Amino acid sequence: MTDVVMIAGSTPRPAVIAAALRTYQERGARVHLVGSFKSADMEDDLGWATLYKVPARGSAGKHMRRRTEAMPAPERLWFHLEHDRSARATLRSADVVVALDNRAVYSAWRVAQSQRTPEVCFGIAAGLRAVERRREQVGTVLPEHVPSPVAVATDGLRRRLRGLPADLLRNATGPLILRTRVGARAWRAAVSAPGVSEPLRLAATEQVIEGMWLAGRQSGALATARAAARKLSDPARRARLSNDLAWRSIRNGRTPGNLAEAVGAHLELADTYQEAGNLTEASKSVLEAMKLAFHRVVHIDQVSSPLAENPAGFTAPFRKSAAARTAVEAKGRVTPAAAPPKDRPLRLLVATTANANFLHLIRSHYGASPDVELRFLDMAEHPGMQRLNGAAQRHIEHRLGGDPLFAHAAEQQLRPYLDWADTVFVDWCVAPAALFTAIDPGDTRIIVRLHSYEAFSRWPHMMDFSRVDDLVFVADHVRDLAKAAIPGLGGELAPRTHVIDNGMDLANFRRSKDPSTRFNLGMVGIGQVAKDPLWALKVLEQLRRRDERYRLILIGGEMSKPSNAAKAYSRKLEKALAPLVENGVVVRIGATDDVAGELEDVGVILSTSVREGCHVGLMEGAASGAVPVVRDWPFFAGGRHGAGTLYPAEWVVGTPEEAVERVLAVTASDEGWRNAGKLVSEYALTTWDWSVVRLDFDRLFFGR
Predict the structure, then answer these.
(1) Based on the domain organization, do 55 and 134 belong to the same domain?
(2) Residue 483 to residue 390: CA distance in whole angstroms
(3) What is the pLDDT of residues 506-558, one digit of tens each?
(4) CATH no. for residue 31?
(5) What is the widest separation between alpha-carbon atoms in the chain?
(6) pLDDT tens digits, residue range 600-616?
């Protein structure tokens, strides 16, 4: 005789349960019903072996009601079953446990963790199949052992999951179950059990990860994914499993704990496809690896970056991957770049896409020069070029040796410009720069400028630097980082490198300042997390403990929020700023076209960033006569170059406490503050003003 215990989380439909009960009894089963239901609808004369409702009449006292009030319904049902002696006895006698509804699944799963380990099913039909299986086993000896909860899940994984309805799998791996330590451990062991087919293992693992994530067990989800991945031989399944978990973290605004594994899995898959000659799939896998590795949440929208911490180590998987190496393989150029012409003006093409912020002085100066014939190309204004810039996967496939139509399209779009120009200057080392290296440039010289952001993006990892003649950096520390991180910048065919400051028209920033300005700290630009204005608030807070005359002026628009990581930082910033703005301690100017005018009210200019190329706002503030206080940018601190080599060492501080001491020292008297301001203004104008920097560009373009 088979004992079947049905668990109800709500009242079953009487007609359905009556018909089911007769069918079970015809197959020789004793059927018990426990749970939460309306007793009047479940008739004793149907032939129930046990009909037991929880909580039993009179048992739900005030203490128990208080304990169960906040519980979800499935958890509350199990609480009553577990604490009722009669219900426990009925469940202990079960050979088959049937959860009749979603609310009952959690209780059925908890029963499955008991010593006797009955077969657990969801729904009447699944229960009937279990009864039939037991009838077929009549005469066989069932093992008598007491497995641990982990063994229960492991040994029974295939039995439980084969043919299991999707809704039962979702409930059995739901957050209620996986929030418990026993449940999480059991399923982690189950998905890594031997002898399970790979499709089944992958499906179960994905459900378990979903449940763990919803249960707040992100570290458990990571451990589960790793355990299951070790049992998967198919690189496509490993990549899918790692990728899904990594993107969960990124969407949540955090750097994935399995980032290196996910990137490595994609690159392994890319190598497999490349070896098989499937370049389309190989390019997709390389691109997926790049999207993960260089996602803005990992490097841009947080105040730390694994690439900055270990540039060579972070990009090592791309050096090891055959497909990734092919994507940056040096193809060289057929003809060397020609020298600048001596008998006519230099034909200079300045190119970018939708970002000409740092090109104004270059365009105006060389556009007016008799020695230069200048043309400007914004690829965003040309639909054909824009489509090619956005076709990252096709670009990589072309690099791998496929998609000849991509090269043909690039030739059509760019060849007229290359044939006209003597020199092409591409600002920003992103899609346009990569596109210009997709085809042989002929004898046209190619110059690319890399600011700072691009070193943390994927574009330098999908371009042929052997077709770039000169690579311009805005600072030594950016060059150090890029050369350590970007594989294409090594080897005999790597481009020449130069460091040239961003040219700025600083003469207009020199202004007279009111004596009260001495106590005004200022920041220009808080639009990115990298600016880390919360660090400035720490400095302000400590300063005001010493002297309440200090306040902070924020010049620039609000922080952009392209990801949940940036949104989280912005929320924290706005919460901290609200009372300070209300009390007049912080003044928000907002976006303005007259930065020089607003800097008249700033006595001390701050750079609190975690990373910068060359901080334009700080340089403008210094030119205005505001005394600089520069945080030793953490992304570059400790390296050969950084804020301390880009600026005079006395400007640079390591902690908010050091910043406070520098501010107090330079503002101790009006005379000392004014003298310091004159010195920094003179330094800025003689170092970064366009009248100085343009000589470096003359040498770059003309070799003078």
Answers:
(1) yes
(2) 26
(3) 999 998 899 999 999 999 999 999 999 999 999 999 999 999 999 999 999 99
(4) 3.40.50
(5) 111
(6) 999 999 999 999 998 99
